[in-house]
Specification:
The protein is built from 14 helices and five strands. Helices cover 62% and strands 5% of the residues. A three-stranded antiparallel β-sheet has the order 1-2-3. A two-stranded antiparallel sheet has the order 4-5. It starts with a helix and ends with a helix. A hairpin with a 4-residue loop joins β4 and β5 (283-286). α5 (158-169) crosses α9. The chain is mainly α. The mean pLDDT is 86.
């Protein structure tokens, strides 16, 4: 018991100090609840290889981010790992299992917390970027939204609208933000799976107890009647046994961003041609090696961003995607007016878009019936045969 208490204190202290780089109000040693005058936790100097990391917890997270960089790897959700272009696994469930054997459950939960702060930092950066840069083009977004309204209709000159809008929406800071958020979320998903697997094997009684308590709290009339310390303790226990879906996490509360669904549509249209379906991984992968883009991190990043807003944002995004698919299908069948090379490229982009919207619904836990409201099922089956 003493070993676990001290090990938990050391992990929590190092996580707390590593989180300081994301906080405006730093937690000093004198204010730390985990530091002790009787048994002090030593602080070691930073290494030359990782000067931005304060301690070993930050270096572990930094190394996970580096080996799963979307510029060199492709994530496969079916194989649960990151792979090189030749199929070599770089990081998978075995890596997370080895990490658990090295730092234990406390270490994995600490890594999860650091990834959460990294995601929150990127979300704040996106909101700041939107309000300082994108808002300047608010008139353009408003015009595009008016031209595409209503979403169930096929607008006239839709191809030119998408072409002009996607060129202006091809912003590298947005892509960087999405892939960083998605990369961290997929890492959290693998950590949560490892924690759940271990709890089902080594702590069945604890897992069932926490699951029952969770169900009873959610079914009560006032689920927040418990005191904040008790709720925090329960949330930490739920994380330790691997309950919950990291991709459903709400990280922040912010004011509505006008025109966000339209901007996301144009961003997706701009970057979909740089992706193609890879049957070996069952996901979208980059066409050119070395380009910083990957299918699943991009989808997970967009899904996480939309989770921070009202569900109507996700519905609007799906409606705009459905409208784009219908316009693309109409263009595919106008081969007499479209050159053969343009039509074939449009077909490839259409396939990639259908894969993207399907995977977006899967990872966002959106029922396919909501997708079929905007893209009929027979249309998706017909497009898959193109």
């Amino acid at each position: 018991k003493m070993w676990h208490e001290e090990f938990s204190r050391i992990i929590s202290y190092n996580v707390e100090q590593e989180v300081n780089k994301y906080l405006l109000k730093k937690v000093l040693d004198a204010d730390s609840a985990f530091q002790s005058e009787i048994v002090p936790i030593p602080r070691f100097p930073r290494t030359q290889n990782e000067p931005t990391c304060i301690n070993f917890m930050g270096r572990m997270v930094s190394m996970l981010i580096k080996i799963t960089d979307t510029q060199y790897t492709t994530f496969s959700i079916e194989k649960s790992g990151w792979f090189m272009s030749d199929g070599t696994e770089v990081c998978g469930l075995k890596t997370v299992s080895l990490l658990r054997q090295a730092v234990g459950v406390y270490g994995l939960t600490g890594i999860d917390r650091l990834l959460c702060y990294r995601i929150l930092h990127e979300l704040h950066r996106f909101v700041k970027f939107f309000r300082t840069n994108v808002t300047k083009q608010g008139v353009l977004l408003e015009q595009l939204r008016d031209e595409l309204y209503p979403e169930w209709k096929t607008p006239t000159k839709a191809v030119s609208i998408y072409a002009s809008g996607s060129k202006k929406a091809e912003m590298l800071p947005m892509l960087t933000c999405f892939r960083r958020i998605g990369q961290a979320q997929l890492l959290r998903r693998m950590i949560r799976f490892e924690l759940g697997r271990c709890s089902r094997i080594d702590a069945k009684t604890l897992l069932q107890s926490v699951s029952t308590l969770n169900a009873s709290i959610l079914s009560s009339e006032n689920p927040f009647e418990e005191s904040p310390p008790e709720l925090k303790k329960f949330c930490d226990m739920s994380l330790a046994v691997g309950l919950g879906d990291p991709l459903q996490t709400v990280f922040m509360a912010t004011d509505p961003l006008e025109g966000l669904p339209v901007l996301l549509l144009l961003c997706v249209i701009a970057y979909v041609p740089k992706l193609s379906y890879n049957a070996m991984f069952g996901s979208l992968s980059k066409n050119k090696s070395g380009y910083p883009i990957d299918g699943w991190p991009l989808i997970a990043g967009i899904s996480t961003l939309l989770k921070q807003f009202h569900p109507s944002y996700s519905k609007s995004f799906l409606a705009y995607i459905g409208q784009f698919v219908r316009v693309s299908v109409a263009a595919c069948f106008e081969r007499k007016q479209v050159r053969k090379d343009v039509a074939s490229q449009l077909t490839e982009d259409l396939r990639s878009m259908l894969v993207l919207v399907n995977q977006f619904c899967d990872i966002s836990s959106i029922p396919k019936s909501a997708l079929h409201e905007h893209i009929p099922q027979y249309l998706m089956e017909m497009c898959s045969d193109l």
